[in-house]
Amino acid sequence: MRKSFDIVKNKRLEYNFVPSIKTLTSILKIMLSNIPKYETSLSIDASMDYTRLAKHIVWLERRGIVKSEIKRPMINIVLTEKGKVFASAFLDD
Could you give the 3-state DSSP secondary structure of residue 3? Predict the structure, then answer.
């Protein structure tokens, strides 16, 4: 859990990180139906480990789709307005 916290806090990804469309779809579906989410509940709902989730959250955050707020010991994740529009359009296809 510490590694995922550091990834979200520092907003760093490996230079070759490529997000999974399946994972992005899962995250966005959950975020549209239940906002805001804590990292733990999002991880459980999406059935993925914290580190993988953290990398996708940072990728989405760099594009302005989600916003993370660190409130020790939790990370609160919400869709931005841009993210709501994007998720609706992305999931419509």
Answer: helix
Report how far residue 83's alpha carbon sits from residue 89's, in angstroms, rounded to the nearest whole number: 10
Instruction: Indicate the length of the chain as a whole number.
Output: 93
As for how many domains the chain has, the answer is 1
Q: Find out whether 24 and 60 touch, Cβ atoms under 8 Å.
A: yes
pLDDT recorded at residue 61? 92
Instruction: Tally DSSP H helices, then E strands, for the chain.
Output: 5, 3
Range of the domain at 47: 2-10+18-92
Cis, peptide link before residue 36, omega less than 30° from 0: yes
Question: Each residue of 32-76: pLDDT tens digit?
Answer: 876 556 666 777 778 888 888 888 989 999 999 998 887 777 778
pLDDT at position 21 over 80:
yes
